[in-house]
Write a structure and sequence with these properties.
The protein is α+β, with helices and mostly antiparallel strands. The protein is built from 16 helices and 23 strands. Bound molecules: flavin-adenine dinucleotide.
Length: about 550
């Protein structure tokens, strides 16, 4: 990947077409032409985004890639180019790119010589530590879960014995919630820190295509090679990891409780100049303890629904023109949205895992929540995705933790109705639509097995109606989506967090405590791996800039 500096500028040329068999070297000329500039002006070329357009507009239309091409140009290109360049900008064929911002920030004097504590070794915590350590600040990362190798052993044991370890599971431990996932790494955040973060993932072993692929993903198998490398690189810069260390409460400095002196944990006390709190969306008891000590917490909207699974072949058939394309391009994916209509709320697909499997992403006995993961080759015969609608305080009632209560009541209902041993309740999509029992369920990738249940009656009416409306619409876009080959598996209740820890927009700290920086998904500021990385990294930059005085 090539950076641009002060003497060069970066122009993103949007929507350049590339045929499936065409060589990428053609993009330099094609992008320059589309932007109305002389190709001799181009100093460098980089693919900014690349996505497949497999829509069938007519019988003769062929699938192709739509590429956003970044052209590195010398300053002053506007003056040297003619009117066609101005026209291209006005028509939206090209836009100037914001220069990247440096990762390192000179530490504020109040931080020099001190340590910063990061709570949570998920994407937000890891990338906060990445920025701090690169800027010369010493960091302790605490995580209640274990290092990756141990975590994977706990996961295998859970699959074998159905005995859940509440501190080592798909949600807690090295890498956080996305460690067993599709590792989708694309984001709509479009932040200047995105490129350096992607570069770090690539240096650690992620495929270089994540820098531009509009559907970039790493896959669980690769993530498990990348994360230890990231840890090693952080340790080399002096970051200390403390596994099996659960934050319990704050210890305050002075009687006015304005700042936090140290953290009481399951593994002793840790002191530092500041705390970055990135505990993810499932650490309810931690947040309740901290709220009892004065940290403000408020309810926010969250998503709830089910997982839907189909044979991957059904999705490939709908998305590609022939089966050859699946061999060439890999398992097809989708992203579907249904606006509110006929009195039902809107719903959308989320976290689609082509060639993947449905997993129990749980940390508490008796509460069943599902999610999806895939390996880097997307090689299983199944495709699954969340179909969710949005709920908020209007549905859950008042109180900061009402969303948790609402979510947990349903998770408990789904756990019991699956038989109480992590078997998941399931219903065929056509039976869900018709409101009847599923006599026989098709096979599923979900390892604990499925049990026929009336998902249409287990879900709250408003969620059922939103999902039915959406499935009806999606069936028109993907033939067979709501038919007998679709299987609804539930519950999918944690595709987002249900609380927010309020923080100042500029200083990113809480108004209650001068040195507390909530970050990531659990604090309500991210909704995926990449947005969590960016949020953690940016919070660390602001802490470095402003200090804690
Ligand atoms: C199965 C699954 C698949 C997913 N797939 C994708 C995907 O493909 N793409 C995508 O963008 N997103 C995906 N997500 C969502 C993504 O993983 C999260 O958005 C992201 O991990 C949030 O990052 P975070 O750092 O804010 O929190 P988390 O990743 O949740 O990390 C929080 C960390 O804090 C630790 N912790 C919690 N409480 C304490 C405490 N009291 N003391 C110490 N440590 C504590 C936890 O052990 C955990 O390691 C998936 C999630 C799951 C569960």
């Amino acid at each position: 990947m090539r950076h641009f500096d002060k003497s060069t500028a970066c122009l993103r040329v949007l929507g350049v077409r590339l045929g499936l068999g065409e060589d990428e070297s053609i993009l330099r000329e094609r992008a320059a032409r589309r932007a109305g500039i002389d190709v001799a002006e181009v100093r460098g070329v980089r693919i900014g985004r690349k996505s497949l357009d497999a829509r069938r507009r007519n019988k003769r239309s062929k699938p192709s890639f739509v590429v956003h091409v970044d052209l590195i140009l010398d300053e002053g290109v506007e003056k040297r180019s003619g009117a066609r360049f101005g026209q291209a900008l006005r028509a939206g064929h090209a836009v100037w790119q914001t220069p990247q911002i440096p990762v390192e920030v000179k530490p504020h004097s109040s931080l020099v010589g001190g340590r910063v504590i990061v709570v949570g070794a998920g994407p937000a915590g890891l990338f906060a530590a990445w920025v701090l350590s690169r800027s010369g600040i010493e960091v302790d990362i605490l995580d209640r879960g274990p290092v990756l190798s141990e975590r994977s052993r706990a996961w295998s044991s859970f699959l074998r014995t159905r005995e859940l370890d509440p501190e080592s599971n798909l949600l807690f431990g090295e890498g956080g919630a996305g460690t067993y996932s599709d590792g989708k790494i694309y984001t709509r955040v479009d932040h200047p820190l995105e490129v350096p973060i992607l570069e770090e993932w690539i240096v650690c072993g992620a495929p270089p295509g994540i820098a531009y692929d509009a559907r970039a993903h790493i896959g669980t198998d690769r993530l498990h090679r990348v994360l230890p490398e990231l840890r090693a690189r952080l340790e080399n810069r002096g970051v200390r990891f403390h596994w099996g260390t659960r934050l319990e409460s704050f210890v305050f400095d002075g009687p006015d409780h304005e700042s936090i002196r140290s953290l009481e944990t399951s593994n002793g006390e840790f002191s530092g100049k500041a705390v970055i709190l990135a505990t993810g969306h499932s650490a309810r008891e931690t947040l309740e303890n901290l709220a009892a000590q004065g940290m403000r917490v408020e309810a926010k909207e969250f998503q709830l629904g089910v997982r839907i699974e189909h044979p991957q072949e059904l999705i490939n058939r709908a998305r590609y023109q022939d089966s050859e394309m699946a061999l060439q391009l890999g398992a097809a994916d989708y992203g579907l949205t249904c606006k509110p209509s006929q009195g039902a709320a809107g719903a959308h697909s989320f976290c689609m895992c082509p060639g993947g499997q449905i997993v129990a992403s749980v940390n508490q006995q008796g509460l069943l929540c599902t999610n999806g993961m895939s390996n880097s080759r997307h090689s299983s015969p199944w495709a699954n995705a969340a179909i969710v609608t949005t709920l908020g305080p209007k549905e859950t009632g008042p109180g900061a933790f009402a969303g948790f209560d609402y979510r947990e009541q349903l998770e408990s209902l789904f756990f019991d109705s699956g038989g109480g041993d992590w078997t998941a309740p399931a219903q065929r999509a056509d039976d869900f639509m018709a409101g009847r029992d599923s006599k026989k369920l098709g096979a599923s990738s979900y390892k604990f097995g499925t049990h026929p249940a009336r998902i249409d009656t287990l879900l709250p009416d408003s969620v059922r109606d939103a999902l039915r409306n959406a499935l009806d619409r999606f069936d028109k876009q993907i033939y067979g989506y709501a038919g007998s080959e679709g299987l609804l598996v539930g519950l999918e209740s944690r595709s987002s967090g249900c609380i927010r820890i309020p923080r100042d927009e500029i200083t990113r700290r809480t108004s209650e405590f001068l040195n507390l920086f909530p970050a990531g998904e659990g604090a309500g500021y991210a909704g995926g791996i990449m947005s969590a990385c960016i949020d953690g990294a940016r919070s660390a930059q602001v802490l470095l800039r402003d200090g804690v005085s």
